[in-house]
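agent> Task received from the user: take the single chain below, predict its 3D structure, and emit structure tokens. No templates, no multimer pairing.
agent> Plan: (1) validate residues, (2) run structure prediction, (3) serialize to tokens, (4) report one or two observations.
agent> Step 1 OK, no nonstandard residues flagged.
tool_call: predict_structure(input=
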Amino acid sequence: MAEMVSTSPPPRDEGETRRDFLLIATGAVAAVGTGLAIWPFVDSMNPAADTLALASTGVNLSPVQVGQRITVVWRGKPVFIDHRPPAEIKSAEDVDLAVLVDPQPDSQRVEKPEWLIVVGVCTHLGCIPLGQKTGEPRGDYGGWFCPCHGSHYDTSGRIRKGPAPKNLMVPPYEFTDATTIKIG
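)
tool_result: status=success, residues=184
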């Protein structure tokens, strides 16, 4: 008697079928296609080139004399730059931190003691304090005065009197050389 020989292929392992391959390939193509389709929408949420250009501001400090204050614009906000004379530096360093509303030593607010750089927006209601121009009131502590509600800031931009809850903000900045800073 002759034995019957089977010519059918050997059984396949689970997961190695042609259908599984097609499902994985289709899923991969669908994922890549979806990513390509939504990329323009995601990319449109990035800031425009003109906005990125305002993200940092370079300032040449060499023409600013000791005792002079200038204002530059960074991200649409005024930034006060004060070339402080030795008396202002000493006055800022000698303050008892226990009497401050928002205690912060002067050394944490400046990179170089002679240069104070702060955002010129009152932390109470967003007004622009006076004291940048010659002849403007500088408040009881020689810094800045916000006439809207009577906030007084010292020569380090710290709130000393009035309703403002915080010191004037110090923006991120760095000295790129001895007389130039980059804000932002």
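agent> Step 4: summary for the user.
The CA atoms of residues 40 and 46 lie 10 Å apart.
agent> Done.
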